[in-house]
Amino acid sequence: MYLELKPDLHTKNDLEERERVIRGIEIYYGTHGEKAAELKKNMYPRPEIKPLIIGTTFDRTLVRQNIYKRLIERLDEGMLDEVKGLHDQGYSWERLEKLGLEYRYCSQYLQGKYDSLEAMTEELFIAIRQFAKRQETWFRFMEKNGVEINWLLPVQEKQPRIQAAIELCKANL
Question: Does the pTM exceed 0.90?
Fold first, then answer.
């Protein structure tokens, strides 16, 4: 039913959970019926919004190094203890696995689904790299469709990138 209403659905994630399908149908009928048309007539016009989109990118090798470094830092800072603590507080493994990649993999490790911490870390590292690649693809898709992205210089130091972003914000306010 949802696909009949929205055949151009850009992401199939909304089809994976019953609640999201139901909510999507509710939103559709709430925005496409006679009552919705009547409500739209009486609404204030929406303001024109021109977003300032700032992107940052690095050489893929550097991105991978940064991902690995950050992953190891998170694990060393007690990510596994954090996930175990949340589970001990009553959060189900299923709920924890929906909180993101790190929580999913840590939950699976704590449930004994990995032979070793090293195996889990390697699998998580691969998953995060794949996620970063999808983000890059999404930005290219945006640009291809005419969205202007203000790319910051790919310098590793944070301060020049922060300053460039501040200047972009000032120039566009």
Answer: no
